[in-house]
Amino acid sequence: MIPEVLLLDLNKQVTIERNNHAVYSAMSALLDTGNLPNLARFMAKQAEGEWSHAKKLVDYITDRGGVAFFDGLAAVETSNDGAVFYFELALNLERSTTDALKLLHRESEAMDQQTAVFLQWYLMEQVEEVKTVEEVVDCFHRSVNLGDQWVDAWMKNYLTS
Ligand SMILES: [Fe+2]
Ligand SMILES: [Fe+2]
């Protein structure tokens, strides 16, 4: 059995991953409405990844004889400041997720070795997650005069490369 305190914190991570899924899904829909189909597709792909992160945690908790919680989620922020708003939001989300996972991993090292090993996958996954969103935010900053449609076209290539 996973120690009770650690189980509670693993469940908090389930909520973080489910929240990431909800935020990416909402941003995908909003970008699609804004006629930016490739940026929307990027967000939809991220949302799928987040769902699999949540599912993997739920399965792990269950396999170890624990109970996974499905808490309510907060409403998703919207903005009229252009698509870059959503990508900067995504970058903050990924960075704070990394911080949360680092804390959780440190806690698990002291309490439960198997959970510590399990969480290593998440720590390494975050390297890619942060890097990918950083690349898109960089593209927005470099092409600030070209507009969202230009970044959407850039994304079309990015998604197939
Ligand atoms: Fe995630
Ligand atoms: Fe992520």
How would you concisely characterize the structure shown here?
The chain is mostly helical. It has helices at 4-33, 37-63, 84-111, 113-142, 148-160. The model has no long low-confidence stretch (mean pLDDT 96).
- Tally of separate helices: 5
**How large, in whole angstroms, is the Cα Rg?**
17 Å
- Strand fraction band? under 5%
Fourth CATH level, the homologous superfamily: Ferritin, core subunit, four-helix bundle
3D architecture notes:
The protein is mainly α and 161 residues long. It has a single domain, classed as Ferritin, core subunit, four-helix bundle (Ferritin). Helices cover 80% and strands 0% of the residues. The chain has helices at 4-33, 37-63, 84-111, 113-142, 148-160. The longest helix has 30 residues, at 4-33. The chain binds fe (ii) ion (2 copies). Residues 17, 20, 50, 53, 97 line the site of one fe (ii) ion.
